[in-house]
Amino acid sequence: MEIQEFKRTVFAAGKDAGLEDMEVFFTRSKSFSTRIFQKEVDDYRVSVVQGVGFRARFAGKVGYSYTETLDEESVELLIRGAKANAQIIDSDEEIEFFPGSVDYPEVVAFDPAIEAVTAEEKIDFAKALETEAFATDERVAMVNWATTGYTETDVYIANTKGLEQSFRRNGAYGFVSAVVRQDEQAKTGSRMVFGNDWSQFDAKKLAKEAVEEAASLLGARSLPSGDYRVLLRHDVARDLLATFSSVFSAEAVQKGLSLLAGKLNEKIASPCITLVDDPLLKNGGASASFDDEGVATHTKNVIEEGKLMTFLHNLKTAKKDGVEPTGNASRASFKSPVGISPSNFFIQPGTMSYDALVETLDNGIIIIDVQGLHSGANPVSGDFSLGAYGYLVENGVIVRPLEQITVAGNFFTVLDEVEAIGADLEFGSPGSGGHVGSPSLLIRQLSVAGN
Amino acid sequence: MLNESLITDVLSAALSTGGDFAEIFAEDTRGTNLRMLNGRVEEGVSGRDYGVGIRIFQGFRSVYAYTNDASKENLVKVAKEAAAALSGTPQLQDIVLQRLRFEAFNPVSKKPAEVLHTDKVAIMKRAHFAASDYDSQITQVAITYMDTDQNVLIANSEGLLVEDRRIRTRLGINAVATKGNEKQSAFRGPGGHRGFELFDHIHVEEIARDAARSAVTMVNADYAPSGKYPVIIDNEFGGVIFHEACGHGLEATSVAKGASVFSGKLGQQVASPLVTAVDDGTIPNAWGSQNIDDEGTKTRRNVLIENGILTGYMVDKLNGRRMEMESTGSGRRQSYKFAPTSRMTNTFICAGESTKEEIINNTEYALFAKRMGGGSVNPATGEFNFAVAEGYIVRNGKIEKPVRGGTLIGQGAQILQKIDMVASNLATGQGMCGSLSGTIPADVGQPTIRVSEITVGGRKGAN
User: Fold this and answer.
1) Position B377 confidence tier, pLDDT thresholds 50, 70, 90
2) CB B375 within 8 Å of CB B364
3) Partner residue opposite B337 with nearest CB, options A49, A87, A259
4) Chain B residue with minimum CA distance to A369
5) What is the C-alpha separation between A196 and A151, in angstroms, rounded?
6) Which residues in chain B are closer than 8 Å to A387, comparing Cβ atoms?
7) What is the per-residue pLDDT across B238-261, written as a single tens digit (0 to 9) for each?
8) Are A205 and A259 in the same domain?
9) Which of B57, B68, B184, B231 to mutate to test the interface with A (most CBs of A within 10 A)?
10) Which of A48, A69, A375 sits opposite B50 (nearest CB)?
C-alpha cells in the first residue's frame, strides 16, 4: 500500500478497535554510499527504506507501534500493539495530538542540484580523497576511509485531529581518514564534509587536512599531570556540546536529570556565550518547518550572553511548564516515541581567528580530538573525563603534539569559564540529536592527566 | 519468507553483470520495548522490522542494496540496480539451493510474544522496588525491558539456504543516587539469547540492588587520582577492556586491510603468557550466541590468543577473500539494513590460576576497577579509552576507599603484555557493540586481572 491508503486503512481499523486519537509518522529514505580502497570501488550501497510509527490513545493512555512494511498484517499489528502498549501505561501525563499550527515557516532543506550529482561523480570524489591523501605525505601508510554518500528523506505526519504535513530534505557527505606511520608510531587523522552544496566538496582540501593532522601527531607523547589552560578546537567543542545537549531539554529538567533545573533567566555561562537553536537555517542538516509532533518551528536563543533563556520543549513538557512548545519534539526514528532534541544547534561565533586564539592561549594545550564521549561523559552531573590528543603551546606557539592524556572537567564549569570564542564555527554531521556546531573555545582551566 | 524460485531469480539477476557471489538476507523481526521511570510505565513500543538485503561480490568488491519491498518484481529490480555497479561477463551459474539444517542450541521455552505485557511489567516493578528501596540516596530508577524475535532467511549463489530464529530478552536497570548537587548513575543490563524464561535464570532483585549499591557508593566517593599506576580490573563486565582494546583489532574488518596492530602477527607473542582469549558464539543461550552467523555460517569457538600467542582472527566471507582464510562464523549485522562484517559474539579472557583475593593482597597500590563503563578504540592504532564506572583505591593489599570519574587510556597491544595476574573467576556481562555493521548484542567477559600500569585520567591531581 502507499502511505495515504495505509493511513486511511489504519485509522478506519483503529476506530473500529476503539482507539481514540491516532497518528502516523512516516519516513522514507533513499540513500547511496560508496567507499574506495586502493583506487577501486570497495563498497557500494543503495537503499530505499520506509517505516511508519503509529501512536494511539486508548482509555486515555497513549501506546506506540511501528512497521516497515505497509501490508494488511501490519495494520492489525499496529493497532493491536498500540492498544496493548497503551493499556500498561501508568504515567498520567497527558499526551496531546496536535491539530496543526496556523502558519508554517518556509524552510529550504532540499537541493535538487545535489540530487543530480551522479554516482560516478561521487565515486570520483571518493577516489580523489584517497589519491590526494597519498599525494600529501609519503608517510601515509593507508587511507582507511575514503567514502561519500547521499541521503534524501521524506517525512509525512498526519493524525485524526486534522494535522497533515510533509517535508523533504537531502544531503551528501564525504569522509576521509588516513594513517601515517613513522618508525613504530601510527597516527590517524580524519575530515568530514556534510551538506547539500556540492561545490563545497573539496577532496584535496579535506584529504590534505586529514593527513596533515595525522602527521602533526607523530612523535606525540604525554605531559605532566596538572591543570592547564585549554583551547578546545571547534570540533571538540562541538562534540562536547552535542554530548551534553540533553541538559537543555525540558524533559530532562522536569525529570530531575538536568542541573539547569530552576536556572531560567539566570547566568549559567560566560557572557561571551550565545547558544542558538535555528531550525530555519538554510540547508541545515536538521532544518524543518515543523517538528515531529507537527508543531511549527522557530529560531531562538537558548543562552543569550551567558543567560539561560529557555529550555527546549515538546507539547507535553510545554504544557507541564505552562509555556508555548518550542518546536523541538523529536523522534529519533519512526520506531521511537516522541522526545526532545535541538535542531541546528550552535554557539554563536566570535571574531577571533584560530591562530589568534592560539596566541591568546599563550601557555597551555590545544585539544583537537577526544575519545570516549559515550562512556566518559555524564550528562546528569556534567562531569567528563576523556582521552585526548592535542598540542602543547608555549608562549603562543605550538611546540609539540600530545597523546596519552585525559582531560577532565565539568560541562557547566566549562561554559562558565570560556574566555574567548573563535570565528571558526563548524557543524558536524547531523543525526537524531540535531545538527550541532561550535567555534573553538578558550577555557580558563581543565584538569589534564598525563604522566 | 521467500520462496525458492524467487530466491534463485534474484540471485541470478544479481550475478548478471559479472559478480561471482550473491546473497540474500531476508528478515522479519518483532519486538517490544517498555520503559519505566520511578515505578511507572511511561512508554511501550512494539513493532515489526521487515526487509531484504542483497549483496554481490566481485573479487574484493562488494555491492549491497536493501529494501522493504519484498515483491519478486521489486527484488529483481533492486538486484539488477545493485549489479549495475559492477561490470564484467556474467558467469553462468546454475544455482541449486540446499537447505542447511543445524541443531539449534539456544532453546527458548517462553516466547515473548506469548507473554502478557502485564507479566513483563511485573518483572520491571520487581527491579524498580529492589533498587529504589535499597537506600534513601537512590532518587531515580529507570527500568527498560526489551525482547526481539528475529526471523532470518539467508541464501546465496553457492546454494546455501538457511533459516534461523533469534529470540533475545533483556532487562535494563539504571539507578541514580543523589547527594546534594551531585548525581551518579549505575547500570546493569542482564540478557540472553532466550525468551521470558531469562527471569527464571537471573535474580532480578539482586542485580537491581547491585546497581543501586554501585550508584550510592559512587556518589559518596572522592575523585580518582590521575597518573600512571597499576590497575586491577574485576571480572564480568571488566572484559570490555579486552573487547574494545583487542577484540576489535582482531576482527577481519580491520585486519584484512592491514589497518590493525594485529595484522600479520599470527603465531607471534602479542600478550602476556597468562592470557588466553576466545570468541565463542556457541555458548547455549548466551547474549551474543547465534546458531548461524548472518552469512549463514555456523558459529564456532574461535581461540584468538593462546598463552599469549596470537592464534586466530574473527573472519567474515568478504574479508576472508582478502586474507585467504575461511569464515570463522563471525559475519554479523544489526539488520537487513547493514552488510555483514566480522564481529564479536561472546568474547572473553579465559580463567587463570590466581584468586581475586591474592591479586588484591599482593598489590601495594592500584586502582581497582570493579565495574567498567563503556569505551572506544581506534583500530588503526589500538589506542583505547574507557570509563571506570565503579572504582576503588587498593593500598597495601587492601581495598581502601571508593573513587569515581576515572578513565583508562592506553594502547591495547601494550596493555595485553602488561597483564601480570589473572584470576580464576571468569564471568561474562552483556553489552551492545556498535561498529560498521550496526549495533549487535555481544557478551564481554574475563576473570579479575591486574595490569602493571595504565594511564588513569581523573579530576583529582596525581597521587
Assistant:
1) confident
2) no
3) A49
4) B378
5) 10
6) 383-385, 407, 409, 457
7) 999 899 889 999 999 989 988 888
8) no
9) B68
10) A69
Question: Quick check: B265 contacting A, CB < 8 Å?
Answer: no
**Closest chain B residue to A406, measured at CA:** B457
* Residues of A in Cβ contact (< 8 Å) with B83: none
Q: Give yes or no: residues A178 and A278 share one domain.
A: no
Checking if the pLDDT of A373 tops 90, the result is: no
Render pLDDT for A310-353 as a digit per residue (tens, 0 to 9). Answer: 999 999 999 999 999 999 999 999 999 999 999 999 999 999 99
Interchain CB distance below 8 Å, A449 and B457? yes
Q: Residue A450: what pLDDT?
A: 86
Q: Which residue has the higher pLDDT, B380 or A339?
A: A339
DSSP string, A18-84: T--SEEEEEEEEEEEEEEEETTEEEEEEEEEEEEEEEEEEETTEEEEEEESS-SHHHHHHHHHHHHH
CB contact under 8 A, B407 and A386: yes
Same domain for A156 and A11? no
Question: Are B60 and B322 contacting, i.e. CB atoms less than 8 angstroms apart?
Answer: yes
Distances (CA, A) of B411 to A258, B235, B254, B263, B454: 34, 20, 16, 15, 9
Domains for chain B: give ranges and CATH numbers: 112-148+167-221 (3.30.2290.10), 223-462 (no CATH)
* pLDDT value of residue B461: 60
Residue A288 lies in a domain: yes
| Nearest chain A Cα distance for residue B215, angstroms | 13
Let me know: does B393 contact B403? Beta carbons within 8 Å.
yes
Residues A211 and A300 in one domain: no
Examine the domain organization and report whether A157 and A231 are in the same domain: no
Does residue A181 share a domain with residue A46?
Answer: no
Q: Kindly provide the ipTM of the predicted complex, given to two decimals.
A: 0.90
CATH of the domain at A38: 3.30.2290.10
- Chain A, 304 to 323: residues with Cβ < 8 Å from chain B are none
